[in-house]
Design a protein that fits this description.
7-stranded mixed β-sheet, about 45% strand
């Protein structure tokens, strides 16, 4: 059974930082690309960042590029999202996701290409 469990969300002031962590089942982690998505109230779920199975490639949405960093620890079956210089627009539920197929420019941003999802963690940025 596959499990993805997010942690690290919370309330932070604008300009602050948070580090999200996703713990994954060992059965999938080493062979899956990992991604982070977010969904704000009343909006669709949007791509945030992704990292390839070996950590060699990363992708970011334009809205977070330069502020967020995705990384993975394959020894611990964890993926992290370091979020710096947070803005109120970053407020959302953040979801960890895994996919079996390799990342690509065409499909990395498409949430329908991800096979496994966590339950989400709330991030709230106050102004």
């Amino acid at each position: 059974q596959v499990h993805l469990v997010e942690s690290g969300g919370g309330l932070v002031q604008a300009g602050g930082s948070l580090r999200l962590t996703c713990a994954a089942s060992a059965s999938i982690f080493s062979t899956n690309a990992m991604g982070w998505f977010r969904q704000a109230p009343g909006k669709e779920r949007d791509f945030v960042a992704a990292i390839s199975d070996n950590g060699g490639s990363t992708y970011y949405s334009n809205s977070v590029k330069g502020r967020f960093t995705i990384s993975r620890d394959n020894a611990k079956n964890m993926v992290h999202l370091q979020m710096n210089r947070l803005k109120p627009d970053d407020t959302a539920v953040y979801y960890c996701a895994a996919r079996r197929i390799p990342l690509s420019l065409k499909t990395t941003y498409d949430d329908s290409t991800y096979d496994y999802w966590g339950q989400g963690t709330q991030v709230t940025v106050s102004s």
